[in-house]
Amino acid sequence: MDNLERDLASGALNGCTPPCLSLYQPTHRHHPENQQDPIRFRTMVKRLEASLRETSAAEAVDTLLAPFLALAGDHDFWSRAQDGVAVFGAPGVFRVYRLPRTVPELAMVADTFVTKPLIGFRQSTDRFQVLALTRQRVRLYEGTRDALDEIPLAPQIPRTLIEALGAELTEPHQTVASYGGLGAGHPAMHHGHGGKESEHDIDAERFFRVVARGVLDYHSKPTALPLILATLPDHQARFRHVSHNPFLVDEGIDTQPETLSLDDMRARAWAVIEPQYLARLRARVDEFGSARAHGLGTDDLSQVASAVVAGKVATLLVESDREIPGHVEGMFGNLTLADAAVPDAGDVLDDIASLTAMRGGEVVVVPSEMMPTETGVAAIYRY
Fold it and tell me: Long-range contacts for 193-198 (Cβ within 8 Å, ≥24 apart)?
């Protein structure tokens, strides 16, 4: 399975040798709904085939579609589906991504891959991670308002207290130790408060310290995603005491994580993140308003297309789930609108978003109700 985060960051999907095939499909996680997913996928592949046969030789069409058909027959893949799938094919290229949220159906042959539906997955405005922590076990989840999935911990991070401390677990006799060279006949100094509960506290703090450092180094720093801690209240305090993670949000989920279903955890995590998400979006909208007032922003499609190609756009707000048929072409960003009824008409917003990302600009996907313009785009210039 290809790594979407890595490929978007590296620009692996930004260019391809035509014809470029893009297929998006909602999928299902559970039986019996997921039994229809490969059937629907084959139907969408037939749509790609019909489009290809209008312009390409039969042998080339068969070569391009072979990996799509192989995927359709991969039972293991479909049995482990999430909420959506994105598949890209071109000469010498075939990439597949499971998606943790649903996507609109799309099967398109064009001169470039259709990537706008994926941009929202890369941006961090509504993504977060949840660290589910007990004395015995640690798990990490990543998700959005729509879905939450467990993700593999980096191998350097221990999964359990025993794995972290092993033979160094505090024994009852270790809670009372002799310090300062004191020998037999001298009173012992107590380590902690003594007793079994103190031993547990010592080990828990040591365990949490190792986990906190590993999560910061191997997950929080690489993704820069907000981290929500799900654990009992006393563990919240102890973990926060030893953690130096700037991505750890102040509000946590104060309960035993093992008692929560995945959907309950997602809902409680989103309740923590949503105010921050909305505040960040409002700040972007306000930033656009200020930029436009000073001649450093626009919502005019033609102007945005030209500015994007020139590398002038620092931040692009693009409306979620909206399409404008057409293309952005040429070295000057010429805008060509098309009839939505024309097969493979393309999407102007997808072209603009992809070009912005290729030139190092930030792309923020904004829900329709918060979009500050009527055109589907709002560009903030670098200069």
Answer: 196/172
